[in-house]
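It would be a great kindness if you could assist me with a short task in structural biology. The matter concerns a single protein, recorded as an amino acid sequence and a row of backbone structure tokens. Kindly check, if you would, that the fold set down in the tokens agrees with what the sequence suggests. Thank you for your consideration; the sequence and its tokens are set out here:
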Amino acid sequence: MFYDHQQIEKKWQKYWEENQTYKTSNNTDKPKFYVLDMFPYPSGAGLHVGHPLGYIASDIYARYKRHQGFNVLHPVGYDSFGLPAEQYAIQTGQHPAITTEQNINRYEEQLRKIGFSFDWSREVRTSDASYYKWTQWIFIQLYHSWYNKNTDKAESIDSLIRHFEEKGTEGLNANQNDELNFTSEEWKNASEIDKEDILLNYRLAYRAETTVNWCPALGTVLANDEVKDGKSERGGFPVFQKKMMQWSMRISAYSERLLQGLNTLDWPQPLKDSQEYWIGKSQGAQVQFKVEGHDETVEVFTTRPDTIFGATFMVLAPENPLVETITTDAQKVEVDTYIEETSKKTERDRMSDVKNVSGAFTGSYAINPFSNEKMPIYISDYVLMGYGTGAVMAVPAHDERDHRFAKKFNLEIKKVVETEEDVQEKSFDSKDSVCVNSDFLNGLHYNEAKAKIISEIETKGIGHGTTNYRQRDAIFSRQRYWGEPVPIYYKDGMPYTLPTSALPLELPEVEKYLPTEDGDPPLGNAKEFAWDEANQKVVATDLIDDKTIFPLELSTMPGWAGSSWYFLRYMDPNDEETFVKKELADYWGQVDLYIGGSEHATGHLLYSRFWNMFLKDRGYISHDEPFQKLINQGMILGMSAFVYRIDGTNQYVSKNLAKDYQTQQIHVDVSLLKGTSDELDTEAFKAWRPDYADAEFILEDGKYITDREVEKMSKSKYNVVNPDDICEEYGADGLRLYEMFLGPLEQSKPWNTQGLSGVYGFLKKFWNLYFNGDVFEVSDEEPTKAEYKVLHTLIKKVVYDIENFSFNTSVSSFMIAVNELQKIKCNKRNILEPLAVIISPYAPHICEELWSLLGHGTSIEFEKFPALNEDYLVEDEIEYPVSVNGKMKFKISLSAQLSAKEVEDLVISNEKMQQILEGKTPKKIIVVPHRIVNIVI
């Protein structure tokens, strides 16, 4: 019977939409299971075949859990604020909302074609005001919270104010920017502005001067992961380090909890390692060094205070505020020039550049508090303001970077840890040796020395033992248009939150999407964007009088804001009263399976854990972690095509002739190849771009053969394969099966359209099991043991594979089972019905159609997954190979129930064995039950 995949898939996609087959209920007795994909940013290019890989895997799992009787939440949405739509708006004037809407429509059309079992009724878009209303609400809760180290959680700012009223800062143990000291009387007598300023020091969302990645060409601050080699990832524009007033999130308060929480998660170890490294916990001491001729001291954090006697110079971060104060007139030009150069590098670049040594001498000296020796103070880009104190005591004998610096600037290298190595030539960094040249530490091992020196530091009153974290607070404001407005207005220069009743604060219309002439963010172009405090509404900006009408914050939130809590909104996206009701959050709980790319390890996955922990602290939800199990899917790589252009000409030489010429390799669009071959359609190539219109070709055997190479699938490499084309030719079920068949989910693998024909052949074979010629024919006859064995072997394998996410081996098992059933001409209902259920998570359209033909009026989706009966897997007979002196002589079929002794007796008495023995007695008989018989004569 002809397998018409196009007709079948359209029919069932329409059925699922009309019947809302995958709509999930919040009111049910069923156990829950929450399956989620990292939601996509809807780009203008739409999906290519690499994008659905993770979605197909999560969809198979969601369908499988439905078959198991779970109430499955498998929603979809869009991370729809983003820089590309804004850049397009700047170039064309088209509002980002229009671009985003068009892109989402394209994505949705493509996703529906692949047959995903998403509950489309729960779709969220981070750029919808009904959604970002709650992102703004969460921001307000963060603003009105502080982190109490005594209770180890976030609390309402009201409890901090009460503490100040009763005790001032006495007994306060809080996460803060600066350590403040005041009495309750001083607090009570402070002005409102002073009180607000003090509270900003503790709030979890706060405004402070911060060093940021500033891109003048884009007119915005960029996150570290948006900058590469000192340039913006988008557009390649120069990026500078600049100090600006910015909103930040106090994620540093959660560093220890974020670190410990990793132990409770079923995540890939490399991903956990990335977060652990990013958080960067280290234990050591905070120590103050006096600066000769100055009242200021330099405070350093060191993990090796035991080496303090070997500290021969100091290095400050170029942006350390002390630099300006202690730099001498003679060194000022050199220092200023160096600071300017450093501003062009991001922190990430500075951290990763371990080879290049550079710096400048400030002209000042610090005094080593233990050796009393003078230590020249330098600045260098290898010291970061955000880690520790922005200063290091350099111990070149025992630190590689300090050693390279000392060699370059000819500074003293003093051994203080015992070693045979020449520390003048190479640093020796070990905790296994003893201290030398270190006065009262001499002869002590690392742990003893560390404890003793910390005690001495504390006795001298110049510091204390402490734990430090590399992770800094996350910058939260962006100088862009297309993002969530920050619900803040300014009165007397101080920030105040809008009342929650005024949310959402909607994005205003602007005439242009660039910063204003005064350098304000794009929202500064809005005509209706001021806050009328008396009437609690947004009014025209020209009404601002700073008495009752005040300016609103002009920055918008970063791309990660909306994605930090979207998994909670799916629980009820239409709730207008709250971001999620507690009882619903308790029912759905954590995401049970989260699938997405590893590139989000230190961005989205940290921020969402932080927001989740905060919401739990404040009592809105009950679970600590958002994502219990996480899988990073690999990439599907493209098969790029190249032509060879002879240098200085518009002549193109075929692959195998190119070695005879000086050529340049150029990417060409894979759609210009003939069918699934490597042959270039030369006429299509000439029509592709104007500069190729008069191309000439040097052919081999009358053909132009392109070179091929496996690379990342991307538009710029012209190797993108559109899933729509694959669905058209091979069907969505073919695409789904093939993407799983390519290899293990976590690995990257190359795409090869030619490989689809094998999977498509399997689908036709599977389809025809249910037909006799063109007639649908299924028998109600009881299956044979052999038929049941094929079915239950498959059930056992597929259950194991799905539960271990080995989807590729399941597809192989389907092929084996269908081949075996075809061979024995099985058309029994008791085999073919459960077979359709087993294969349906992978290929839902064809299985729905077969289920319907089998006489069922409801969807296959909620049918119970077939139960395994091990009895069918027990062999009745075993075919034993019989080896004599190591050579296989014959095979004998015997009952599987026989003991080893019974097998031995039957083999020895066998006629063939008697002929081989010729009356001799075997020296040795070895029976491996159910496997083999070995005889030595």
About this structure: The first helix runs from residue 5 to 19. The mean pLDDT is 94.
